[in-house]
Amino acid sequence: MLLVIYNPACGDRSAKEFVDAHVLSVLTDAGRTPDKVVATDLTIHEGHPAAIVKDALENAGAEDDVDVILASGDGTLNDIVSELSAHPAVGPKSGEHFRLCLALVPVGTANAMYSSLFPPASEDAAKDPTYKLQSVKSLLTHGPTVPLTLAITTFSAAPSARQPPHASVSCVVTSTALHAAILDTSEALRASHPGIERFKLAAQQNAAKWYGAQAKILPAAGRKYVQVYDPAKRAFVRHPESTKIDPIVDLTGPFIYFLSAINVDRLEPMFRIAPLAGARGQTVPSLDVVVIRPMVNHTITWDAPETREAFVSSIWKILSTAYQDGKHIDLRYNDDGEIVEGGEGDPVVEYFRCGGWEWLPDDIDPDAHIVCTDGAISRIEPGGRVVSVAARATSAGGFLIYA
After folding, report:
1. Which of 179, 366, 324, 153 is nearest to 256 (CA)?
2. Helix (H) or strand (E) run with residue 147 in it
3. Residue 228 forms beta bridges with which residues?
């Protein structure tokens, strides 16, 4: 069964036009006729994209594979993944996990998943219709598929609140601190700035904020230690504080940046924030966590408004270097606290490979309670915490992307 789904509201709202002009013609040239071409419609209900796929899985024959061409952004992909993850046995084979293969067509705003699987040579190259059809062509030629790792993020209130925890599923990014604040602010800018420029405007509005919290970095399943990137070796090594007796790494705030990448090495076509991550070749489900803590700079000894303002230029330098093929992970502080390339000073960016993390925000800092899961914004209750861990379905089921 072949299903074509497009989200007419995502990105610059060109999904239908692109499907009609390019996707359907490629299918026709290959002698393939989709069983259904359908637009998502959130006015029907919030989980409409997943409902379309679920219906296809339930009506497929016992021997039929279900392939989905999804013309959308990362948000619609998450809608499908998160909803179907709650119903892993859906389909004609009772009691078995479903297996869903998707070919992505990047017509959303940032298209992190697609551009991580098919890194573009430039921003202009990412706009070319031929570039956007690579996953579809992989489906048509029975190309390779990449299994998705999922992040299960659990929100817990304070024990005194007596509220049950609730979970969220993401397959692109889970974050707090600056990245989550940017996503939260950017929603108010969507109508006036539908492209990725709204994220840069939102970043300017939040750049001087520091976030009070404590964090724990957890080792991946089957691994004894948390790994951290060493700029001198250009590789992950065992974190010096992750020991056989206590493998968990504790991080003390304040934080500026805390982002967990899942399956992706970038958030935009050229913004390579976690350059060693990605969906290809991951043998153990893990997360790549990128952290910036201002007081890693030994010249900063106290938190004050003027100190935060002074550090804004450093934030821009770090994040702008992420556009240079992810070179920010090799930046260091010199003896004067300046950010330089090379040298032997402390790394500016703490880059972890791990199985999960825990975030405990300070109650007096409401901004530290914001969490982003694939673009959806949630808030941690006062006295609460959030834990995010990597997971993957069995080899017989789950979500796979044509690459």
Report:
1. 179
2. strand 145-147
3. 237, 352
Selection from 309, 337, 310, 332 nearest residue 321 by Cα: 332
pLDDT digits (tens, 9 = 90+) for 217-233: 999 988 899 999 999 99
Closest CA to 196 of 62, 27, 344, 323: 323
Q: Which backbone phi and psi does 323 adopt, to 5 degrees? A: -75, -10
Average pLDDT value for residue range 183-195: 82
Average pLDDT over the chain, rounded to whole? 91
User: Beta strand 150-156 with 145-147: parallel, antiparallel or unpaired?
Assistant: unpaired
Torsion, Cα 367 372 375 379, to 10 degrees, reads: -60
DSSP character string of 338-395:
-EEESSSS-BSSEEEEESEEEEEE-TT-GGGGEEEETTEEEEPPTT-EEEEEEE---T
Of 71, 16, 11, nearest to 194 by C-alpha is 11
Distances (CA, A) of 24 to 69, 71, 77, 79, 306: 10, 12, 20, 24, 56
Tokens of 312: 């804004």
Return the pLDDT at 234: 94
Given the DSSP bridges, would you call strands 99-106 and 370-373 parallel, antiparallel or unpaired?
A: unpaired
Answer yes or no: is pLDDT of 287 > 90.
yes
